[in-house]
């Protein structure tokens, strides 16, 4: 089937002719195909009248030909050569267009269509280019978090199965990340699958974060060649948790600082503004240089006035990062002397004192039988009307719930005093004798009559309280 040795010089001449005629200007005729598609190569020669057969071959890197398809013009038959690479993938149509299904990277070759007549061989070469769009780039092996002032691996940007190979670019907030020593370190790697000859590109990014990277989106892109030129595919965004150290510690007190009183439970809460926030602190109680290690809260129960003082908390590993607060435990003591139930004789003297001791100014209020007194009571000589229920009460206005009261129940006793008055009725028939008895407890009154006559007895009790 080879053309005869004779016209070999003519063959070269033909090639030159066809090169000059069919490809004016630059380069070879090229067919671009997508990976996996069918490559369609028209023969690009006018079919001569006396055509015997058409043939397709490709050229090996060393230039030697490999014949793959044959179509006889006279017998209208097609034959494919036994080339394993092209088994069941070829189709040579009547107009000598060759189709290769399922395009592979290894199909990137120079193919030649040959039309052979009795005395001539016409050839037309075609270059096949295959393109494979890579997978959408993905950021993988992502760091669970980044740390300020530390160069850490952020992740790998990977884009698979590209042909030809492409470039990977990283972006922070949409801006290209350029390599910068110690801050942005990029390591690019490409690998070719030996079977498919497709490239997988990986770019590792090591990055030194700052607090400005909080909520910043990182992306990457792959730039690759398609049949019509360079194209780009973008990855999804990745946002990283940025760890940074505490720069300030604060201490909070519950209940609110000016409302702490004896008996309260005080909860100190310590906060650090780092990320993640510190979980443990040292708490310093007044006058104690050694800190107590605790979670971020520390509770003092049932505090007394001696708990007044400066409270501090610091980081465990950096004790200079410290916060302090002054706490006053308010108190209010009231002592009433005498108190409780006191029984006195009329005319007795009774000094009464109600003294207070408090963390703030407090005023005393006196009540007698629920009526407010203008001044504190003091008795140089007791009267019956001095008896009653006295209450001495005080409160710290600033501190809710801090109030005290004590009471004194005063009983004034006295021997009965008798006063008699007589009245004679104008008619002269009867006399009224009034016996006026004053005393406490209530005296019992008894009449004794000597002689005869009838008596109408009437008794009335007067409770003297006021004049
Ligand atoms: C050759 O034939 C195929 C189908 O047989 C057709 O699709 C194609 O357009 C033809 N090409 C030319 C250049 O005539
Ligand atoms: C890759 O990057 C280089 C240099 O930046 C550039 O010249 C080249 O065209 C790029 N290749 C692709 C496939 O984008
Ligand atoms: C203080 O805390 C204790 C439990 O630790 C609780 O029994 C008590 O009621 C609390 N006192 C106040 C005033 O909340
Ligand atoms: C405070 O006083 C109470 C008694 O009122 C005592 O039990 C406690 O130990 C004292 N606390 C301090 C820190 O001195
Ligand atoms: C508390 O008492 C002092 C002196 O006794 C007085 O100067 C001060 O004004 C008082 N404060 C209040 C809030 O009443």
Automatic annotation (TrEMBL):
Subunit description: Homodimer. Interacts (via extracellular domain) with CD6 (via extracellular domain). Homodimerization and interaction with CD6 involve the same region and cannot occur simultaneously. The affinity for CD6 is much higher than the affinity for self-association. Interacts (via glycosylated extracellular domain) with LGALS1 and LGALS3. Interaction with LGALS1 or LGALS3 inhibits interaction with CD6.
Membrane topology of the entry: Single-pass type I membrane protein
UniProt-recorded name of the protein: CD166 antigen
Keyword Glycoprotein: yes
Protein's gene: ALCAM
PROSITE patterns per the UniProt record, alphabetical: IG_LIKE
Main location: membrane
Any GO BP annotation: adaptive immune response
